[in-house]
Write a structure and sequence with these properties.
Layout (H helix, E strand, L loop, with lengths): L5 H7 L4 H34 L1 E8 L1 E3 L6 E12 L2 E5 L4 E6 L6 E2 L4 E5 L2 H26 L3 H33 L5 H30 L3 H26 L2 E3 L4 E6 L6 E2 L13 E6 L4 E8 L11 E6 L2 E18 L4 E8 L11 E8 L3 H4 L4 E4 L5 E3 L2 E8 L2 E13 L2 E6 L6 E5 L9 E6 L1
Parallel strand pairs: 1-23
Antiparallel strand pairs: 1-22, 2-17, 3-12, 3-16, 4-11, 5-7, 5-10, 6-9, 7-8, 9-11, 12-15, 13-14, 13-16, 14-15, 17-21, 18-19, 19-20, 20-21
Helix pairs in contact: 3-6, 4-5
């Protein structure tokens, strides 16, 4: 058998580098999988060996306000002014001057606008003239007849008496002649008629003299006095109408809305709609006297009473609380909503408070003697509480174990639920998953 040619065989041997690269990547993947398998196996070994449950914990927050009020209920509502006024005109007219800017603060009796007063000024002038005429007539009657008038009436009586005497003489002479048939019957009748007329004139002159001497009757004076009073009333009414041409602020407050402008017609009648004459011209309110209006559920009304202290926070300024108290509780409920309207007065409103903004009200109560004995109140999330036959419980994370702890709770607040007994503060309270743990369960903590 021939010996192989070693040189030629060795020359055939070489390394295929294209095939070598996949082998290197394969080894790298195998190494990574080995590491992951080792880590996963270790965790599975730990979890299986210790029966641990991954839990979320929070620290129980301590509140050292020992004697402070306890929150019992938190509800949302809207800011409203206690006094909101729509300023309206009492007369019909056109606005000739208006100095109103929304947001401006005004004092009571400040001028808001003026209405054209030409017609109303003319009514005042006419009423003034009527009053002057009535007063002059009354003064004339109260003064009585002047001496000159009395003397003229007396002279008229004397003149009528002289005329009657002359007629009497003529009548006597004609009657004598008539008996002797010297004069005709017609002459006697004419003379007798002249005498009767003279007698009537004398009687009238005497009555006139008596009236002038006595002066006006009491009834005439009374009628004149009544006319003066009526004239005074007409003048007062005209002046009142004139005063209505100037609209003044009825309260001290802030202009909320401007509903009319210079040149527009205002009226004392509400015709409805947005066109035509305006019945309301300005809306204003006292922003130093504000309330929070809340529609409170019927189930929570029992936790609220008149005068109850509250804490108010606006959604726009949650870190700036304000004090308040329950001001009004509606005597009737809303049947459809199953709510009762409650109004909470803001005791010292801040400058940033505006009507119609959102607000949250926390109703407070004073702690009872048992609660006052607790040095601190502890706050925990509501989700951490469990209702058990023996009362309320929480789970505490302690040395890798879930420990059940019975607690006594107070009212709810923005921090959660107040625990008045059972916790000291600072405990790691388990929030979830409560349905997978029991007293003594091994746990692994994950702080939230």
């Amino acid at each position: 058998m021939a010996e192989p040619d070693l040189s030629r065989e060795l020359g055939k041997l070489h390394i295929d580098r294209a095939r070598k690269r996949p082998a290197r990547r394969l080894w790298r993947w195998l190494a990574a999988l080995a590491v992951l398998a080792a880590g996963g196996g270790a965790w599975l070994y730990y979890a299986a060996g210790h029966n641990a449950v991954m839990v979320t914990v929070v620290l129980a927050a301590a509140d050292s306000n020992r004697d402070g009020p306890i929150p019992v209920l938190t509800a949302g509502g809207y800011i409203i002014p206690r006094k909101e006024v729509e300023v309206s005109s009492k007369i019909i007219g056109r606005i000739v001057e208006m100095d109103v800017v929304e947001g401006r603060k005004v004092r009571r009796a400040d001028v808001l606008l003026r209405i054209d007063d030409e017609e109303y000024q003319a009514q005042v002038d006419a009423a003034t003239g009527q009053l002057a005429a009535a007063q002059a007539r009354l003064a004339e009657l109260q003064a009585g007849s002047r001496p000159e008038e009395i003397e003229a009436a007396r002279a008229a009586v004397e003149s009528a008496q002289a005329t009657l005497d002359g007629r009497k003489q003529d009548l006597d002479r004609i009657e004598a002649l008539a008996k002797e048939r010297v004069v005709a019957r017609q002459e006697l009748d004419r003379t007798r008629t002249a005498y009767d007329v003279a007698l009537a004139v004398l009687n009238e002159a005497r009555k006139r003299y008596e009236l002038v001497r006595k002066g006006p009757r009491r009834e005439e004076i009374d009628a004149a006095e009544a006319a003066v009073r009526a004239a005074f009333g007409n003048l007062a009414y005209a002046r009142t109408q004139l005063a209505y041409t100037v609209l003044r602020a009825p309260i001290t407050g802030t202009i909320l809305e401007k509903l009319a402008d210079k040149g527009e017609l205002v009226t004392n009648i509400n015709f409805g709609g947005t066109r035509g004459a305006k019945s309301s011209v300005v809306t204003m309110a006292d922003l130093t006297d504000l309330q929070v209006e809340i529609d409170l559920s019927e189930n929570d009304v029992g936790k609220v009473r008149a005068g109850q202290r509250c804490q108010i926070r606006l959604d726009s300024h949650p870190d700036e609380p304000m004090d308040g108290k329950v001001d009004e509780i509606a005597p009737m409920a809303d049947r459809q909503k199953a709510t009762v309207r409650v109004k909470v007065a803001i005791e010292r409103p801040r400058d940033f408070v505006r009507p119609e903004v959102n607000a949250r009200v926390t109703f407070l109560r004073d702690p009872d003697p048992a609660e006052r004995a607790v040095a601190e109140r502890i706050w925990v999330p509501n989700a951490a509480l469990l209702d058990r036959p023996g009362g309320k419980f929480v789970f505490i994370a302690q040395d890798g174990t879930a420990v059940a702890r019975r607690v006594t709770v107070g009212g709810a607040g923005e921090k959660g639920v107040a625990v008045v007994a059972g916790l000291k503060g600072g405990e790691r309270v388990i929030v979830e998953p409560l349905d997978k743990i029991a007293d003594g369960t091994r746990i692994v903590e994950s702080s939230s």
